[in-house]
Design goal:
single chain, about 525 residues, alpha/beta, 23 strands, globular
């Protein structure tokens, strides 16, 4: 049956001024913008309507798991970041340890750059604060962490650091071990609650599709990713899996579930680290004289990318510093297909023309830089003024035709797309800020282009997934995006039904139709 949505402003996103007065949907697809002669009518009460959004880079399993076994250390508000002292962190961890009954405590969103000690807590401090329990503290950069003695013993790392603080390669090479331990703590009730919270939060922000970068090569079998891939086929929102494998056996375990062939992301596909851990691979040293190194030799990475590209897979890889971006570009320039650079935060000036010529898909998270400039000051702490000035030129890239894809890197940040769009519109480098329309395109039109799917536009023949708001996103000032959310999300023409909190969520998923991811 046809359904015509009326009494709304339908922003097609074909161009900034293209707004329709009604929209007709049939079998989940947009069929026109004139009121149908038959079928039902839905009055949207004068709302502004936009294509549903795609988060192009997040880690869904981690977000789901951390919802059940983790708590956030630092909170970022308009007043700043709290706590900012190790004493404040100690109080939070002691309080949580006093009431926590599980086998593992995970503390996320620790921000070492703002702490009075400018470091993560040591294992000796964690041992004292937790009473000797297994505890894991994750820095906001996603590339450094600290472990208690009990956790180090369970992880059985061959070269565990004496102080329990892992950064760069020592952290990234063992991340699968720690996420595996975390996954082993997830009960059915924790899993159900995490899935419901994740899907409902995406819907609250108008996100209908997520690119889930999942999996690790550093275990014999990645059962947790196999499980989440199977469940994701029944999620109410669309999941597009990017398996983070180079191991062919592991890749084969999820290939049949995927809509189109893809590979890569972070984990095994990280070419360097991050600024916060001083492991992003820059040409020049950090302010303290340290340097970040490439995780792959050119030959090793070239062989892996070329083999997957020849199979017709979309390849995605994490590259933050200039040297990592240069390394990836040199390979992409010589393999078939159009691929992704994830993050691409600090391209060298001479790399930009190569990017414009090659036109890879580029996933960005400018909300982090927005937070850093105002509250964290990590870039100022670790980078020279010249390095800071070489941040990704968003405006130039957008206007040279690069497909910038908005994303959150959740759970490193909230899935909130409006924070990322605020970062795009009020960018660290003001002259490289995007317009409201350009920023919204990164989450709508560009996500569909990157995936090669009819998503992200309100246009005949496109998927009828859209969200509504009371206000016009294209006329709001950047600061007005704080606290913004969608009023309603429609998936293929039908209003989103929130998943229930608890085991009932898994029951509903079990009764849902499977879709490719």
């Amino acid at each position: 049956m046809k359904t015509t949505f009326v009494n709304a402003h339908f922003h097609t996103m074909r161009d900034e001024g293209d707004v329709k007065e009604s929209m007709t949907v049939n079998d989940g697809v947009i069929v026109g913008f004139d009121r149908a002669a038959n079928g039902r009518t839905v009055d949207l009460g004068g709302a502004h309507v936009y294509p549903a959004m795609t988060d192009a880079h997040l880690h869904m399993l981690d977000a789901i798991a951390l919802d059940g076994v983790g708590i956030e250390i630092c909170r970022i508000t308009d007043e700043g970041v709290e706590p900012r002292t190790l004493d404040g962190v100690e109080r939070m961890i002691r309080a949580h340890a006093a009431r926590h009954k599980g086998p593992l405590m995970v503390f996320t969103n620790y921000i070492s750059a703002v702490m009075d000690v400018k470091r993560l807590p040591t294992r000796f401090e964690l041992d004292e604060w937790t009473g000797g329990a297994a505890a894991w503290v994750l820095n906001i950069d996603g590339h450094s962490s600290s472990c208690s003695s009990a956790l180090l013993e369970r992880a059985a790392l061959p070269d565990a650091p004496e102080d329990g603080i892992l950064a760069g390669p020592s952290h990234d090479a063992n991340l699968g071990v720690f996420t595996g331990l975390m996954a082993s703590c997830i009960t059915p009730s924790i899993l159900a609650r995490g899935i419901a919270h994740f899907c409902n939060e995406c819907a609250r922000y108008g996100i209908a599709t997520v690119c889930a970068l999942e999996g690790t090569d550093d275990s014999e079998r990645d059962r947790s990713t196999e499980m989440i891939a199977a469940l994701a086929q029944r999620f109410p929102i669309d999941v597009r899996l990017f398996p983070q494998y180079m191991d062919r056996t592991k890749l084969a375990s999820v290939d049949a579930r995927m809509k189109t062939p893809r590979v890569g992301g972070c984990m095994k596909w990280e070419l360097d680290g991050s600024v916060g851990s001083r492991t992003a691979a820059f040409r020049d040293p950090y302010r303290d004289g340290s340097t970040g190194e490439l995780y792959f030799s050119d030959d090793e990475l070239r062989a892996a990318v070329a083999a997957f590209a020849q199979e017709g897979r979309l390849v995605s890889a994490h590259a933050i510093g200039e040297r990592a971006i240069d390394q990836l570009l040199s390979i992409y320039e010589n393999v078939p297909g159009r691929h992704r650079i994830d993050h691409c935060e600090f391209p060298a000036p001479d790399a930009l023309e190569r990017i414009y010529a090659l036109s890879p898909f580029v996933t960005v998270q400018p909300g982090y830089a927005w937070i850093d400039k105002r509250y964290l000051h990590g870039y100022e702490t670790f980078l020279s003024a010249e390095q800071i000035a070489r941040q990704i030129p968003l405006r130039d890239m957008a206007r040279r035709g690069v497909v910038l894809c908005g994303s959150s890197d959740a759970p490193v940040q909230s899935v909130d797309p409006f924070l990322q769009m605020r970062g795009m519109r009020d960018f660290y480098l003001p002259e490289q800020s995007l317009t409201a329309y350009e920023a919204l395109r990164t989450y709508t039109v560009n996500g569909g282009i990157m995936l090669g799917e009819t998503k992200g536009l309100l246009e005949e023949g496109y998927e009828a997934s859209f969200f509504t708001t009371e206000r016009d996103l294209l006329t709001m000032a950047p600061e007005e995006l704080a606290g913004m959310h969608a009023d309603a999300l429609y998936l293929r023409g039908k209003a989103y039904r929130a998943l229930p909190d608890g085991i009932a969520a898994l029951v509903r998923l079990a009764c849902s139709k499977k879709r490719s991811i």
